[in-house]
Amino acid sequence: MRLQRHGSKKRPFYFIVVADARAPRDGKFIQKVGTYNPLTVPATIQLDRQKALEWLHKGAQPTDTVRRILSFKGVLYLKHLLRGVSLGLFDQATAMEKFQVWHEEHEAQVRKRSDDNRKAQRARRNPPVVRRVETRSEAPAAESPAAEGTTEA
Asked: Which CATH class is domain 2-124?
């Protein structure tokens, strides 16, 4: 499993594919599993979790970057849980429950990071306006004609 580069110069966009190790990087592949766009914050990853898990069970070896992507999306954790099911440590329902809890926590973290990034971008685009507040001093008020009129009376 590896990345197949698309996109123009300095604007990368990747397909996550299953390919023979002998095939060229952007050449022939067996199956497209997902996409990866590193230019967004956080990076946009579309992944068919079932296909990726199926290929991992068949023995596909992911590259380092694809391994990090699979880990980020929870595919490697799901594979780990299913290994526990096959060893009889717990049942399928417990494994799926553990995965759902992890997935919900992970999605909340990703949402928070995305919101923080949007707020930071807005702050950079629209810096806060600082206005100087002038205070009136006592001396000019005493020199005004209205102030003189009140002191004479």
From this structure: alpha beta
23 in helix, strand or coil? coil
Given its phi and psi angles, is residue 74 left (phi above 0), alpha (psi -120 to 50 degrees) or beta? Answer: left
The residue assigned the tokens 């005004």 is 144
Structure tokens of 134? 């002038």
User: What percentage of the chain has pLDDT greater than the value 70?
Assistant: 88
Q: Which two tokens stand for residue 88?
A: 């009889």
Please state the domain extents for the chain.
2-124
Tokens for 38, please give them.
Answer: 């590193």
Cα 56 to Cα 83, 97, 98, 136, 138, distances in angstroms: 12, 21, 20, 75, 80
pLDDT tens digits along 95-112: 999 999 999 999 999 899
